[in-house]
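Changelog note: in this version the structure field was regenerated for every chain. One regenerated record is shown below for reference.
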Amino acid sequence: MRDTGRIYLDHAATTPVLPEVARAMHEALLEGFGNPSSVHREGRRARAAVERARRQAAALIGADPEEIIFTGGGTEADNLAIQGAAREAGAGAHIVTTAVEHHAVLDACEALESEGYRVTVVPVDGDGRVDPDDVLAALTPDTVLVSVMLANNEVGTIQPVAEIARRARERGVLVHTDAVQAVGQIPVDVNELGIDLLSFSSHKIYGPKGVGALYVRRGVRGRLKPLVYGGGQERRLRPGTENVPGIVGFGAACEIAARDLAARAGQERRWRDRLIQGLLEAIPGALLNGPAPGQDGAAAAGGVPGLDGRLSNNVNVSIPDVAVDVLLAQLDLEGVAASSGSACTAGSVRPSHVLRAMGRDLDAATHVLRLTVGRSNDDEQIEQALEIIPRAVARLRRAGRFTVQRG
């Protein structure tokens, strides 16, 4: 059971499973135990549950159900899109991506480079946004795929994916977007975006971990090679017996996300803006990373009106003169769950590759606090966080805890 006395501000890392989702999964575990590939009643019941979830997932992004391929999560979906397109095209294939992608994309591209495939990494501006002209200029006759995330997981920047897709597809190039952070946060319609491949994940939208999906536009499946081989499940792109309870939970989470997306985004945007304003006012030297609230993001989000340039739930600030790993530990002790904008492993904090690509210096790229709001929060918690965080920063500065403890 979740500790209701805590303030959870790390929804971009993962979200708590909703009770409605858990109930659907519980039923699937107890009553939908059959193998979906079996022809008997138990198997048919499991198959029906999987196909219902496929319709729910498709509806959230404006796709047809047969265009949804269930995977083990967003990372696998990214790899299936990127490695699948490259390997099907063969040696010499060229991929274009950006400097601020999630490591699931960048590391997949790096692995392909080590095998002789070619990759071009396009830079971004100071807000973390890529210029469609730069992407177009990077295309060559051998380019088989462009992969540009829809919204950044660290700073929340919404990318001009629709414009990139329109221009790349005119050249016959497949377009993939990692929409793991965007789906469930902003309206996403694959037809309005004009993309061929889209990755999204269950645990970012209040569903279970270990399940996600890759949208594969009709007619594109033959241009992907599977990562694993076995049975004929998921149209032979992702063989293996389906994770029925996880898929059912994912489908339920998709349906809930579609139901109240607009109202929830408005609420979260208000909390986001309050946190940004409060932190910048209360913490000397704090610097906002990513687009400022109020910047028009309609063009970036495929023409969706009412959006500004960053995700409605994302706050990312650099806080100089404080060891961020110590700050996170202190906040945890005081009941606030937050994260750094950089990768944390084994007690070390690495500079954010996203912030470095945006032109931030080493100090600003290392001393980062990321707060992401969600369904777990309320107005009172936001105000409590604005009391706790500046107080903790001031205390650490007085104590001289300036330097990140590196592993």
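Spot check on this record: The first strand starts at residue 7 and ends at 8. Confidence is low (pLDDT under 50) at residues 297-305, 343-347.
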